[in-house]
Amino acid sequence: MTRFEKMIFDIKEDIFYLINNPNKMPDYMEVDQLQQIIDELDKMSIVKNSEKYYPYYPKGIIDCCWDYNDKIYSKLMDILYVYKKI
To answer: Is 30 helix (H, G, I), strand (E, B) or coil?
Structure first.
């Protein structure tokens, strides 16, 4: 498993935890949005080329005013950084 694949695996576990435990989910997150992020992460892991596929989630996160100190936000931005370098 590559570093990128491991990062995606780890964040998906975090996201599934929130989806399955909505009482732990911050107010600025929504289940639909988290499910869409999972779909985008799956596509990113297949395409591995930010010129061919660029996820919507960075814009969606900003539009929904996520807390930039949130660990999921940080992990998603780290994944995006690595993805852009692949």
So the answer is: coil
